[in-house]
Specification:
Elements: E1 4-10, H1 18-32, E2 36-42, H2 51-62, E3 69-73, H3 74-77, H4 81-85, E4 92-97, H5 109-123, E5 128-131, H6 134-147, E6 154-157, E7 177-182, H7 191-198, E8 206-211, H8 217-229, E9 236-240, H9 244-253, E10 256-259, H10 268-275, E11 280-283, H11 288-291, E12 297-300, H12 305-317, H13 319-333, H14 339-351, H15 371-384, H16 387-397, E13 405-409, H17 415-420, E14 429-434, H18 437-447, E15 459-464, E16 480-484, H19 492-504, E17 508-522, E18 528-529, H20 532-545, H21 559-569, E19 573-578, E20 581-583, H22 591-608, H23 613-628, E21 633-644
Parallel strand pairs: 1-2, 1-3, 3-4, 4-5, 5-6, 7-8, 7-10, 8-9, 10-11, 11-12, 13-14, 13-16, 14-15, 16-17
Antiparallel strand pairs: 17-18, 17-21, 19-21, 20-21
Length: about 650
């Protein structure tokens, strides 16, 4: 794809709602990078498109030349699948989805199903899909399975960035606490719930200002009536829609953001508030459970007036709690990524090539790691990784007089860096190396705000190159070479070449989470559960592990032993720790990862033994049911390794 596309949105592109602001910010950042982007606003009624809307979309698509790239916002395309399908063979169409149309609050069952089916039909025909939250990425396959309308396009998460902002001052003793709600006045945003909750908050030492356009006249009238009925005219004010300067002033004078939404596809105002160092009181509706970091605010169930009232009362009447939440918001502020990083991820999603057709630049299709899988496994990785070996690596780097350089092979979304950087010394520079431009862009996005052990920012460079041959990978100035969950994909020749390069430069290695090839189920007490069918399927999985994944004949679970032997020949000193995943039976937080593991094992076994597909499917169904019932957990063998060359200190750059 060239660095040019057309963005099509419903109505006026300058509207000040989360989705339109997301679109505008991405466009602005990409234009700063040299992209040429035409933005087209469609006339007519959306999302329940009328004739004028259909004609407007038809005209916008028909005027584009063959093979032109076009991004269609979900609000503009969800109700017009036939229109989209007419142009999918002629145009390169990307769908930009903020949240499923059928999930909007207030729809009856028939309309909800109609919107879901229509949108899924449109999505089934596009080249790719970009969503703005991991929640929506999880929601789409659920809907596709429910309605039996498969989605074949890749789904990429590009979360919103946030603009840098000054920290809002904390409340002084005796000062009126100012609560800020930024949301359009529509039922989904829940301002009626907020007013009812505020009616039960004691005292007159707080003020709540609600900014947002009155998109639903009847709902706006209901909210104002609730304000009047509860005598809150002097405490709660509906300020309406405002410009960016007025909103920034509101953030600067606020002490907390309140967002009572029933459902959000992301909740950009949450990160905007955190950028100002403001605690957030919100719900768990939709993606909000993912958007608000732990410790930076209070979350309650959507629509629960009593719970929201209690949260607001605690905030307004407990100065120590306010201080704790403000500290949590400050920590979260340091981890926010900017719009530049978001736009790079967006560009990578648009320009990502078909990996299976481009093996010379990527690993083969069998080794493609979906962004969602990498996100899903991160918590288990962090819990099992060796703290001891990470400390050894930090001690290896600490004598350097120059900034330490760490090369991360097959970095994916940057999980390895996020684990290690806070444990390493100051002024680190990370060289993130991966074959997948999209994952690299997401890694850079996730690195924004990452700090080292002394609170200093971490410098990041990305290199989109194949890991084969290893001699072409830029490792020359690294003091430490690291990788996570990579080793089972590589060959003995690849390992020998890597160790040879590292030994020549006196580079240390920290290789984490290398699979041992062993896994088994565990019961509620953590004891192994042995079964002949499991042993049979494990044998199929081990055989599949040793297929060529693009880096030679893969070693699978034998890779760690080969690496140790090769390092010993080069006189490296080696430390190892066992770092298994121990996913507990009945742990609901870990069940999605366990389900993904089961599906992956079954898929690998089926590829290895296609004639046994029915037997494998039966095994999968039984194990999934046992995991879902809390009867079985999963143990997966991993091992971490740290190795240093014969010299005790890392070699300084020449």
């Amino acid at each position: 794809m060239s660095r040019r596309f057309t963005l099509i949105v419903a109505g006026d592109p300058a509207q000040r709602t989360g989705g339109y602001i997301y679109d505008a910010r991405i466009v602005s950042a990409l234009r700063d990078q040299g992209w040429e982007i035409d933005v087209v606003g469609l006339a007519g009624v959306f999302p329940d498109a009328d004739a004028e809307a259909a004609a407007a979309l038809a005209q916008a698509l028909e005027t584009l030349p063959d093979h032109a790239a076009v991004v269609i916002d979900g609000l503009a395309m969800g109700a017009l699948p036939d229109m989209v399908a007419q142009h999918t063979t002629r145009l390169d169409i990307t769908a930009l989805l903020h949240h499923p149309l059928g999930d909007e609050l207030g729809l009856d069952e028939a309309d909800q199903q109609r919107f879901h089916r229509s949108e899924l039909t449109a999505l089934a025909s596009v080249a790719r899909i970009i969503v703005t939250s991991h929640f929506t990425a999880r929601r789409l396959p659920e809907l596709a399975a429910h309605y039996a309308i498969p989605i074949n396009a890749s789904v990429t998460v590009v979360e919103p960035g946030v603009a840098q902002a000054p920290v809002s001052p904390e409340a002084e003793a005796g000062e009126t606490l100012r609560l800020l709600c930024v949301a359009t006045l529509t039922p989904r945003k829940g301002q009626d719930v907020l007013v009812q909750a505020l009616a039960g908050v004691a005292g007159n030492h707080w003020q709540c200002d609600c900014y947002g356009g009155a998109r639903d006249a009847a709902f706006t009238q209901r909210v104002q009536q609730l304000i009047d009925q509860n005598g809150l005219q002097s405490s709660v004010c509906l300020r309406g829609e405002c410009d960016s300067e007025t909103l920034e002033a509101a953030y600067q004078h606020a002490h907390a953001l309140v967002l009572p939404s029933w459902y959000e596809g992301y909740g950009m105002v949450v990160t905007e508030a955190l950028a100002h160092g403001l605690p957030v009181i919100t719900t768990t509706g939709g993606a909000l459970g993912d958007t608000l970091p732990e410790g930076a605010g209070i979350s309650v169930e959507p629509g629960d007036v009593a719970a929201l009232q209690d949260a607001l009362s605690q905030f307004c009447n407990d100065a120590e709690l306010r201080q704790q939440l403000r500290h949590g918001a400050a920590q979260a502020r340091g981890q926010l990524s900017d719009w530049q990083a978001a736009s790079e991820a967006f560009a990578a999603a648009l320009t990502a090539q078909n990996h299976a057709a481009n093996d010379s630049l990527t690993l083969r299709a069998g080794s493609q790691f979906e962004s969602d899988w990498l996100t899903l496994r991160e918590a288990a990785d962090f819990a099992s990784r060796s703290q001891r070996l990470a400390t050894f690596a930090a001690e290896w780097l600490s004598p350097l007089s120059s900034a330490p350089v760490i090369a991360d092979l097959g970095c994916g979304r940057g999980s390895n860096m996020r684990f290690l950087a806070p444990r390493f010394c100051a002024h680190q520079r990370w060289e993130l190396i991966d074959h997948d431009a999209l994952l690299l862009a997401q890694a850079r996005q996730c690195a924004a705000g990452l700090s080292d052990s002394q609170g200093q920012p971490v410098a990041v460079e990305t290199h989109c190159v194949s890991l084969e041959p290893i001699t072409d990978v830029p490792l020359g100035d690294a003091h430490l070479v690291t990788a996570s969950a990579l080793l089972d994909l590589v060959s003995q020749q690849w390992i020998e070449a890597l160790v040879g390069r590292c030994a020549e430069r006196q580079q240390a290695l920290l290789i984490a989470l290398s699979v041992t090839g062993e896994w088994h189920f565990i019961d509620a007490q953590g004891e192994p559960v042995l079964d002949d069918e499991d042993h049979w399927l494990l044998a199929m999985f081990i055989a599949h592990q040793q297929r060529d994944k693009g880096l030679g004949d893969a070693l699978g679970g034998q890779a760690q032993e080969v690496l140790v032997a090769t390092l010993e020949k080069a006189d490296y000193r080696i430390e190892q720790d066992d770092t298994p995943w121990q996913l507990a039976a009945g742990n609901h937080d870990q069940q999605p990862l366990m389900m993904a593991l089961l599906e992956g094992w079954a898929e690998a076994a089926t590829e290895q033994a296609p004639d046994a597909a029915a037997r494998i499917a039966s095994w999968l169904e039984q194990r999934q049911q046992a995991v879902a019932n809390g009867e079985l957990g999963i143990w997966v063998g991993h091992r971490d390794l740290f190795a240093i060359p014969p010299f005790a200190k890392p070699q300084e750059e020449a």
